[in-house]
Write a structure and sequence with these properties.
This protein is mostly helical. The protein has one domain (2-298). The protein is 83% helix and 0% strand. The protein is built from 15 helices and no strands. The longest helix is centred in the N-terminal third of the chain and has 33 residues, at 62-94. The radius of gyration is 18 Å and the shape is globular.
């Protein structure tokens, strides 16, 4: 019976075609059916989203990506560094556990759950710290996908401005692309390009984490989908595919986005929600509000 309903919910997500609703439908599905930890949607959501981002790379122009990055990448780098150190300092000031604060700072500065998942084994964080950090970032990302397009419309932001705004101010790559997709295709292209530049900071983050906590790690845990995205971007520029091919790649990206967001919504952990305390939540919200304000000021 569960599998019948998941087909219904997924079909509804694809039919509506709205990233925020797909995410919320996943959350509702999880609460209605109390999914087991090993339910398949909890395992494939991130992979589907990453696959969609790779297909998006195949529909982007390298010259356009270079132009966008050249204009905004210095700001992205400044945002990453300033956000990380300010978030970590804020956590220390208000008394958040050192490793939990480090996880939240990593997720806020770079790429949300991906950064947290990469850093956690490097610093040997406790399971409850990892669950708390991931849950807080997840909640903020759900909020972001819903309210950011409303902010963009209210402020009458252009596609370029909105793409830059979400790339700077939203944590996870999936939520960045999800919010941008509601606003328009150009916003998606800008957001995806800049967010990839932000995610590249994972390499120095892992190196800094290993040094700061005096831990060694055999591999970087660097997201492979970023490499595939860049390869697809290069192939697109070399082969110059037709409009039909580019359109097909964008449709695959959109489908992967909606299905992936639904699956990620189904990952919500009710027990983890009950374990969240005020201090780390306060840390994450304050730094996020500062980042949002700063991003709007820049654009």
């Amino acid at each position: 019976m569960t599998y019948i309903f998941i087909i219904v919910f997924l079909t509804l997500s694809l039919w509506v075609g709205h990233a925020a609703l797909a995410l919320l439908l996943g959350v509702v599905f999880s609460y209605l059916f109390r999914l087991s930890e090993d339910f398949f949607t909890k395992k494939i959501g991130t992979k589907i989203l990453q696959t969609g981002i790779v297909f998006l790379g195949g529909s982007l122009s390298l010259s356009e990506a270079a132009k966008i990055s050249g204009d905004f990448l210095p700001w992205v780098s400044l945002f990453v560094i300033a956000t990380f150190f300010f978030a970590f300092l804020l956590g220390k000031l208000i008394g958040v556990d050192k490793k939990l604060s480090f996880l939240l700072a990593s997720g806020s500065a770079i790429c949300g759950g991906t950064a947290i998942a990469v850093v956690a084994p490097t610093i040997k964080s406790k399971p409850e710290e990892l669950i708390t950090a991931l849950t807080i970032v997840f909640i903020l990302n759900v909020i972001a996908v819903i309210i950011f397009p409303l902010i963009g419309s209210l402020l009458e932001l252009s596609q370029l401005q909105f793409g830059t705004f979400v790339a700077l101010a939203i944590h996870d790559t999936a939520s960045v692309i999800g919010a941008a997709s509601i606003f328009g295709e150009e916003a998606v292209e800008v957001a995806a390009t800049l967010k990839i530049g932000r995610t590249l900071w994972l390499i120095p983050l892992v190196l800094f984490s290993a040094w700061y906590f005096r831990e060694k790690r055999s591999s970087f845990g660097f997201p492979l989908f970023i490499i595939f995205f860049i390869v697809a971007l290069i192939l697109n520029s070399i082969l110059s595919p037709s409009y039909e091919v580019s359109y097909f790649l964008k449709q695959v990206n959109k489908t992967c986005l909606l299905v992936g967001l639904f699956c990620i919504g189904s990952q919500i952990d009710q027990r983890a929600l009950r374990e969240i305390t005020i201090k780390p939540l306060f840390q994450a919200i304050i730094i996020w509000l500062i980042v949002i304000t700063s991003a709007l000021w820049i654009i």
